[in-house]
Design brief:
Blueprint: H1 5-13, E1 34-37, E2 40-42, H2 45-55, E3 62-66, H3 72-78, E4 83-88, H4 91-103, E5 109-113, E6 126-131, H5 140-144, E7 146-156, E8 162-170, E9 173-182
Parallel strand pairs: 3-4, 3-6, 4-5, 6-7
Antiparallel strand pairs: 1-2, 7-8, 8-9
The chain binds S-adenosyl-L-homocysteine.
Length: 188
């Protein structure tokens, strides 16, 4: 399913065991989501990879992620992009993500404790935006903070059956394609 060589190489550079809770280290290399506390999860590796592949990240890109969680997704994207901003509402998880990224010696990711539905105007516009929680609809602020020719990947709908959307901004138009059904924690 993952055919993009750059994406595969980024995946191989990150140790998932550094992004899971200490009692789950032996499970880190199974292809499953795992609890990270606060009713949240680190996503299944296959899902992370498929979403990153859909995002078509280039070396010069500034990427925004909504839902830092463990920081794992941001860590992989940090190997593909110039800079990654990742937003998290739960303060303890923002700290967890920050520490995990530090332990992996990653310095081009900034973790910000804030409501991601507003986006991050301070660093906008972004070439790419990735949302890692199920949204009831696409937040307009995120579309507004996307560069022309930008792409946003976002699961939309019911948390237990949300559709993965890839939205391409072309001038004032948005072209949407659908990429299957997934389960995600809700975007709150
Ligand atoms: N990308 C993460 C997994 C994300 S789980 C990883 O690689 O581990 C989804 C995360 O989105 C949770 O941590 C949850 O707290 C966060 N979240 C939910 N709603 C949010 C919002 N409005 N703004 C920012 N983060 C949010």
């Amino acid at each position: 399913m993952i055919t993009n060589e750059r994406v595969l190489s980024a995946f191989l550079q990150i140790s998932r065991e550094k992004f899971v809770n200490s009692d789950a280290v032996t499970l880190a290399y199974q292809d499953h989501p795992l609890p990270i506390g606060y009713n949240q999860t680190i996503s299944q590796p296959t899902t992370v990879m498929l979403m990153i592949q859909l995002l078509e990240i280039e070396e010069s890109h500034i990427v925004l992620e909504i839902g830092a969680g463990s920081g794992y997704n941001a860590a992989i994207m940090s190997k593909l992009a110039r800079k990654v901003y990742t937003l998290e509402t739960i303060p303890e998880l923002a700290v967890f993500a920050k520490n995990n990224l530090l332990c992996s010696q990653i310095s081009n990711v900034e973790v910000i404790h804030t409501d991601g539905k507003q986006g991050y105007q301070e660093a906008a516009p972004f070439h790419r935006i990735m949302v890692t929680a199920a949204a009831s609809e696409v937040p307009q602020n995120l579309l507004a903070q996307l560069e022309d020719q930008g792409i946003i990947v976002i699961p939309v709908g019911n948390p237990y059956g949300c559709e993965m959307l890839k939205i391409h901004k072309i001038g004032k138009e948005f072209k949407t394609s659908k990429h299957g059904l997934y389960s995600f924690v809700p975007l709150v």
